[in-house]
Specification:
alpha+beta; globular; binds ligand K1U; binds zinc ion
């Protein structure tokens, strides 16, 4: 297993639209293991393949308190979302240190393959629902900061670029 580098906003690669996973082979299984290790080490509750510069429709999530209940979603599809929405505080491992409110569906039903290629139906609420919607946006090349005002987004972009410059020097 290996820790993978996480792309940081405003890297343009974060806006790549992911393609379906064609086959769950050894490469994909290794990628899943590496993404889970990377997510847990970064103290995240989710990670999309896009964030580690792999542009395939693959997400890992673990919203459990013990960090022992990983969920793998391959080629996920939201088949139903509730009419009710709520503003939730979100963060992103690709935008470290920034948290802000995003309006999301309260409930979603998602169809996906698991790591064994088995078809799963997940009915999600609470943090799992928010996290699934956040990660599925990553697969479409969409970042949570794109829901914020242009003023806030530009401030975040400037802050991130400054932090990246300082980290290099
Ligand atoms: O996609 C990512 O970058 C992971 C992101 C997922 C996420 C967090 C909060 C709301 C929606 C989606 C993170 O895990 S950032 C870390 C974080 O903010 C957090 C960690 C533990 C509990 C709650 C939030
Ligand atoms: Zn994110």
């Amino acid at each position: 297993m290996a820790l993978l580098p996480i792309l940081c906003y405003p890297d343009p690669k974060l806006h790549t639209v992911a393609k379906p996973v064609a086959e769950i082979d050894a490469r994909v299984k290794n990628l899943i293991a590496d993404m889970l290790e990377t997510m847990h080490e970064a103290k995240g509750i989710g990670l999309a393949a896009t964030q580690v510069n792999v542009h395939e429709r693959l997400i890992v999530i673990d919203v459990s308190e013990q960090h022992d209940s990983p969920i793998v979603l391959i080629n996920p599809k939201i088949i139903w979302s509730s009419p009710e929405t709520h503003l939730n505080e979100e963060g992103c491992l690709s935008v470290p240190g920034i948290y802000d409110g995003v309006e999301r569906f309260d409930l979603v039903k998602v169809e996906a393959l698991d790591e064994h290629g088995k078809q799963r139906l997940i009915e999600a609420d609470g943090l799992l629902s928010v996290c699934i919607q956040h990660e599925m946006d990553h697969l479409l090349g969409k970042m949570f900061v794109e829901y914020l005002s242009p003023l806030k987004r530009n401030r975040i972009k400037t802050k991130m670029l400054k932090a990246q410059r300082e980290a290099k020097s």
